[in-house]
Amino acid sequence: MNKHYAFFEIEEKWKKVWNNNNTYKFEQTDKPIFSIDTPPPTVIGKMHLGHSFGYTLLDFVARFKRMNGFQVFFPFGFDDNGLPTQALIEKITGKKAEDMNRLEFIELCLKETKEIENKLKQQWVALGISAEWNFYYSTIDKESRRISQYSFLDLFNKGRVYQKDAPFFWCPHCKKAVSQRETKHVDEKVTFYNIRFKVKGMDDLIVSVSRVEFLPGCVALFVNPDDERYKKYVGLKAKVPIFESEVPILTDRRISPNRGTGVKMCATFADNLDTVLFLAHSLPLKKVIDNQGKLTSLAKEFEGFFLEDARKAIVDRLKKLNLIESETEGIILERIHKECNTKIIYQSKKQWFVKILDLKEKLIELGNKIQWNPEFMKKRFESWIKNIEWDWNISRQRKFGVPFPVWYCKDCGNIILAKEEDLPVDPEVDESTVNKCPRCGSTNIIPETDVMDTWATSSLNPFIITRWLSDRGFFEKMFPLTLRVQSHDIIYTWLTYTLLKSHLHENQTPWKEVMIHGFVNDEEGKKISLSRGNFKGVLELINSYGADAIRFWAASKNLGEDLALNESELKRAKRVINKLWNVSRLVRELLKDHKIEDSKYELRTLEKWLFYRLDEVITKVTKSFESYKFADGRKELEVFLIKDFSNTYLKIVSKQMNKLSDKELAAVRFASYHVLLALIKMFSPIMPFITEEIYHTIYVNEINKSIHLNKWPSEFKLGTTTDYDCGEMLKDLIKAARRDIQKKSIKLKENKENLIIKVHIKEKRYSILFDKIREYLKEFFGISKLEFSDSEIKNKSDIYKIGIEVYLKNSESNF
Predict the structure, then answer these.
(1) What global pTM score does this model have?
(2) Secondary structure (3-state) at 429
(3) Residue 81's closest CA among 97, 57, 66?
(4) Separation CA 97–CA 87 (nearest Å)
(5) C-alpha span between 394 and 351 (Å, rounded)
(6) Which tens digits make up the pLDDT trace of 472-507?
(7) Nearest Cα to Cα of residue 264 among 215, 303, 223, 325
(8) What is the CA radius of gyration of the chain?
(9) What are the strands, taking DSSP E only, across 477-510?
(10) Cis omega before residue 269 (within 30°)?
(11) Strand arrangement of the beta sheet that strand 392-393 belongs to
């Protein structure tokens, strides 16, 4: 073994070996199956560590389960059904999705992303992710589109999907629908007009309004239910100034009593809150703006006015009618289109919804059937479900995505569905199922132009990877899956919608348990993301520190906790890796060519203590991995490696080598061999590369082709509690002596021959233990004898309360 651990060469070596040997291939055997619903990462140009963090934790699980006798199903795919992929491909090719038919653009995406995904795949391989790459999929490929469209048809036939008018973002300059990702908020200075609304038999209600041009679209007034000022108005109707329509006065806790006058005008749709209120309270729709940004006929004499012109004209009319009580200046958030900096307006059209409101209690019941890791994440899920106020809108107004398998009769509005055997289809390209409308006989058949929300396909991930439609036998064997892994921010979308679809399609939960992890934050505590640009790429960090160091760092927090990208922690990880390497070199030197038999050895107290401690670590680390508390397991391994095995046992042994008998040396070799083997096995899920290298360098007689296919260590049961107490006393006394050496600034290397350690043992029970370890204490510090004091020494060990003092010959003593 080389003196220094060359991580780059070793990691490159084992990546190739694992790939060539299909080390992690999933085979259907008689072993129990542990199956994983792997989150497909979004196809982007460069993967950052925050994005790949959850996959590292997931790989800990996969490797641990393989070593515990499971056949692990760990598929991998990429999510290329979404706006990030569309934007990337448009940037690369210079072609716009809106200028092509959908199938052509999908084929373009599949072609262009193939190379990108292969490069991204190599980043996961470089990180040591042990996925089954033969089970590879794309969320926009033919089978995924087929499954997504079949899901829609199934839900339609079960009466779970329906259409209703709903809002969407529209850019009046670009004349197209845009997504939330394509917009941004900017501050805008505005005037708030306190306008009088007449209420029969009551004083006027004063409503603070900045977008007065939306008065013709007013459908309700809202107040907070706890606002004492307005309780007497609730349930009455108010008359809209100028336009004379009557609207109800309702309550909603989202209304702030301290904002403006505490009364909110709701129009369809002036702002985002209007949209929320519209959906939550099933309010009527008044389309007051057309797609050019002009007022419609609802505005009466203001019809055809652009918004800014309409605002001025309506304010002038309100002032003439003495309906404005006062004015104040303020700032509002205005949503604009990133591409052209034009203010976004809301448009509405019939959109598809999945019924979810009637299943809230059922979803909570299903959530209770799943094991949550960590448990407190279930509370977030339940809170979200309880607060759902409208059904799931699955329509999106863009070109790229999975199209709805639907056509319409333009004359009578009849819905025409695709046939199951024809899926996947694109209604804008493919002819409809029928030539004429079954209801009215019209041949005027038009396609649905919307595409599905990406979550409508992502929620079918467990169905895609288990071949729901193509291999029913495989699906029934694999479903439900064992584990879903994801971050906590998409509990409300990905987890909830997957649970919903699994219930609606198969009447069961999609997994037995879920593992929810936190975010990776930068050094300022902000979430790492591509949009913020506050990240370093995975390969950049691997090239600097090695994959094992990145993985060791990833295990520093338990589930649900956010993790900071702190390079000092990565440097610490490298120190631990170097320690493991150096310990392994020492053990290899101890073993040389000696064959270790599993027959009984005459173990000394020191070996028995070491095995007792090892048994403790095996128990604790096993428990931590089973409960996904990787940080706890990492801590146990780090402490045992450094404090027990390296800094205590091997340090003493290295100083004893010339004094040991053949039997004692055999015991040392036996202990070193088995302790290191158990240690690298437990480290192997976290640090797969260095442990594989050590395994194949030292343990050449082991029968497995990889440490990762080896059996997880079990307890040795070679030590007793007395042996444990002896070893812990030794560690405790070494610590106390070192503390005194540091306090007195004694330089050990220069003063070993003059070093004296005095001890005072007050309790007899400690004297018995001390007699078993006194020689080890002497050998640790390289002294020939110990002195004992009848007087109590103030400087005591932490646990066993034995007084201990270190001093040099001819120096003053405290005795």
Answers:
(1) 0.86
(2) coil
(3) 97
(4) 9
(5) 8
(6) 999 999 999 999 999 888 898 899 999 999 999 999
(7) 223
(8) 35
(9) 481-487
(10) yes
(11) 176-177, 161-171, 345-354, 392-393
